[in-house]
Amino acid sequence: xxxxxxxxxxxxxxxxxxxxxxxxxxxxxxxxxxxxxxxxxxxxxxxxxxxxxxxxxxxxxxxxxxxxxxxxxxxxxxxxxxxxxxxxxxxxxxxxxxxxxxxxxxxxxxxxxxxxxxxxxxxxxxxxxxxxxxxxxxxxxxxxxxxxxxxxxxxxxxxxxxxxxxxxxxxxxxxxxxxxxxxxxxxxxxxxxxxxxxxxxxxxxxxxxxxxxxxxxxxxxxxxxxxxxxxxxxxxxxxxxxxxxxxxxxxxxxxxxxxxxxxxx
Length: 265
Known about the structure:
elongated; alpha+beta; 3-stranded antiparallel beta sheet; 48% helix; 265 residues; 8 strands
């Protein structure tokens, strides 16, 4: 005899379709906990089958500790943006960021069972692509997540600068700097840009001396656009971010900026 109440309970606890819940209960002789075990095993199999499907959509989750000493950001990918708006998907993202802010990025490894169950419920490949945590010693961590949930950043400042804390995180989100200071730019990045600028300048047919000046100017512009401290502050283009922070008695130690799908071929 079909027990609709049990099917409903299993469905509410797993998010799996009515028919699959019914089959699991029948296989488990209508024992709810045994049926849940059946579905967990099935979800792992389904996850393995979907693992090779592209997942470049998704959303971010971001959290700052109550005392401002730590912050975490996580990217969870799905195959479609429709799935990324699913309530269960959003809840999974929040569980992931809660785990990361408590125990660090490696904490996502403990969410494999939950991920498999989500794959089974939603029917898409789901992956936790990356996660990062900033913990400040003597400073403060702030963050900003865009309303779309697809781009955001966490920043560590050496001291509390009030409203500027979050504003810097918003600036990083909007302007996408590569590093805090020019000295942090990897040499291979500088070499690549120098090669590109040199090739472009030589195409003008101008003398080598002029070419060198052109390359030097373009490199200076590249560094200004790529380094947080050299960027023009988004709320006051007459101010450089580094100078603004210094005037407020603080400096940016580190930042992490994520955008859903960036770098995925």
